[in-house]
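User
Here is a favour to ask of a fellow structure person. I am asking you to supply a protein in sequence and C-alpha cell form. Please set it down just below, with no commentary around it:

Assistant
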Amino acid sequence: MELANRVLMSPMTQMTSPGARPGETVLEHYRSRAAGGTGLVVTEGIGIDHPASVDHSAIPRLDGPGAVDAWRVVVDAVHAAGAPIVSQLWHVGPLWGANSMWDPEHRAALDAVRPMRPSGLWGHKGVTTYPDDEVSRWLEPIDPMSDREISDCLDAYARSAALAVEAGFDGVEIHGGHGYLPDAFVWSETNRRTDRWGGDLAARAGFAAEVVRRVRATIGGDRPLFYRFSQHTQQDYKALKARTPDELGVYLGALVEAGADVLDASARRFDAPAFPDLPGADGELSLAGWAKRLTGAFAVGVGGVGVATTLREAREGRRAADAGSGENVHLAAAAVGRGEFDLLAVGRMHLKDPGYVSSLRNRPGR
C-alpha cells in the first residue's frame, strides 16, 4: 500500500446506513475526505457476519453479496478521489445495547438478541458516559459464550474479511479495543474463563490473536492488516489491560506474531504517556510509541489531533475546539518525525473539515 502522506481518517461510527447498507451519504462522507487530501481512509466499524455484531439498524455490515455490492461503489469512489481505503471489522461483544439506545424504532428487536460476553459479564462500572439505568441493566450476568459461539464468531471474522477483499478494500482493520469482543477476552474484568481462552494475559490475548490469524489467512499477505487496541474500555475509561510495558509486549507481541502489520493505538490523547510512573523518557512515551518499540510493527498515534479540548470539556464550554493553533498538530508531526510512531489518525477535524489535510499543507510556514 502506498500513501500520499502519513495522515489517516480515523474510524468513526456514523449510523447513516439504513438497512445496514452504505449509500450516497456514506459514499460522499469518505470520498470527500479522500479528495481533501487524507492519505488513507479507514471506515467506521462495519459489523461482521454475525447476528450480534452491531446493535443499530443503520450501522453497516459486511454480511453477504448485497453488502459487497454496496461497499464496492464506495471503495471505487474513494479510489477515484485518490486514496486507499481500509475496512474496519467490528463486533461489539459485551457492549451490545449501547447503540440500540439511539435506534428506538428497532430497539425492542435488537435488545432481544443475546450479547456475546466471554464470561457473561459486562464489566464493572467505572468512568463511563453510559446512563446509570442502562448500566444497571447491563451489569446483570448472562451465560458465558459457549465453545460453539466462540467458533462462530471466529468464522464470522474470516467471512467478512473475505467479503472486504471482494469489495475491493485495500486492507482490513480489526477493532480490538474499547471493550468490544476481542478486547473483552483481553480485559480481566470481562474474561474469567478457565479454559484455553482465559487465565493470564497471554491466554486472554489468545482470542484476539486467533482473530488476527483467521483474517490474515483470508486476506493473504499482500494487504495490510491493522489492529486497533486500547487500554481503556467504554465501561471504564481508566481501565488498563497492561499495567507495565512487559505486559503490553505480551499482548501486542501475540497480535504481531499472528499477522498484524499495523497497531492502531487508540487513546484519549495521542501524546498521553502510557506509563507515566516510569522514570525519564520512558514515562513520557505514548501508547503508540510503546507499541512500535515493543513489537517493531508500524504504529498509529490516535486521539485529539487538532483539537484543544476533550468532548466533555467542549460540552461544558471550558475551552473551544481548536483546529488551527498549530501547537497540537506540530507535536503530532514531531512525534512522527522522530519515529515515535508512523501514522497519525485524525477524527474530529476530519468531521469538521473534509479538506483538513490539504488545509494543513497550505498553511503558511507549514
User: Anything to note?
Assistant: The chain has a mean pLDDT of 94. The chain is about 35% helix and 10% strand. Residues 7-362 form a domain with the TIM Barrel fold (CATH 3.20.20.70). The first strand starts at residue 7 and ends at 9.
